[in-house]
Amino acid sequence: MSESSMHLLDRAPFGRVIPAMVTPMHGDGSVDFEASAALAKHLVASGADGLLVNGTTGESPVTHMDEKVKLVQVVKAAVDVPVISGAGSNDTAHTVRMVEQTQEAGADAVLVVAPYYSRPSQEGIFQHYQAVNESADKPIIVYDVPGRTGVHLSLETYCRLSGLDHIKAVKDATGDIAGAVRKRMETGLTWYSGDDALFLPFLSIGAVGVISVIAHVASNPLRQLADAFDRGDIREAQRLAVRLAPLVDAVNGTGFQGVLAKAALHERGWLDETKMRLPNVGPGEPEFKRAHQGMVDAGILEA
């Protein structure tokens, strides 16, 4: 294989750079579907080649089924890239209903978080996904985020899940790069980084892309990073990762990713209203300043 034709990355079936999209809202807290469509178009125009709606950053715990369904429909109509819908809950029956309704609304895949709070056994986790699998006709992406769910998926559970028909990929927000090597190799599942800060390390162990918060305002440099890695220009990929580090810290460092994502979009000029539903409180002046400075330091905005 010649150097010019070398590719290190596998195909990314749901997109390479996928913003975990915020849910724009009116000042009264109702979902702003018109702004959602406009934002989706901005994100794709700026380099995103897939979108996730109804995820944690999209305030999924406080949006309702009819809103989730309409959001999928509106975003699918607005853009021509894969649209993934979050459809996870700690209630298996409710998860099944969300999967059925969001895929009927047109979602190209569903992101299903490991059941949280109740801390089920590994057998309980497997049966949760098995029930979802039986109701699905679109690909399922497992969302492994123990910092939010309080549960860890074992290697054995991953291997069992990989045998289910519709489970095709993983959004890995464990921070466990060493563990991901074996999980990916032994399951054959498509791997996505669920952590902006670890995008480059995850690419190095076989991930195909990132489901990202900073991609709201940095899809293009994230795509450049992936392209550099793909052609074997590791130094350029490293340079871009370092360049983006201040933005990663600004948006993710406080733990309030949805708040800072809306702040960053506001500072970028792509989101006028930054209202959020309780218990999240929308950004104020400190968050706007933090997001703005992070973008300046990352070369996204001029000082």
Task: Kindly estimate the percentage of residues that lie in beta strands according to DSSP.
Answer: 5-15%
Mean pLDDT: 97
The CATH architecture is Alpha-Beta Barrel
| Low-pLDDT runs | none
Tell me the number of strands. Answer: 8
> What distance separates the N and C termini?
44 Å
Q: Find the CATH superfamily.
A: Aldolase class I
| Rg from alpha-carbon coordinates | 18 Å
Helix content: 40-55%
Structural class: alpha/beta
* Main sheet specs: 8 strands, parallel
**What's the CATH topology label?**
TIM Barrel
Q: Describe the oligomeric state of these chains in a short phrase.
A: single chain
What is the top-level CATH class?
A: Alpha Beta
Helix-strand sequence: EHEHEHEHEHHEHEHEHHHH
Envelope shape: globular
- Number of self-contained structural domains: 1
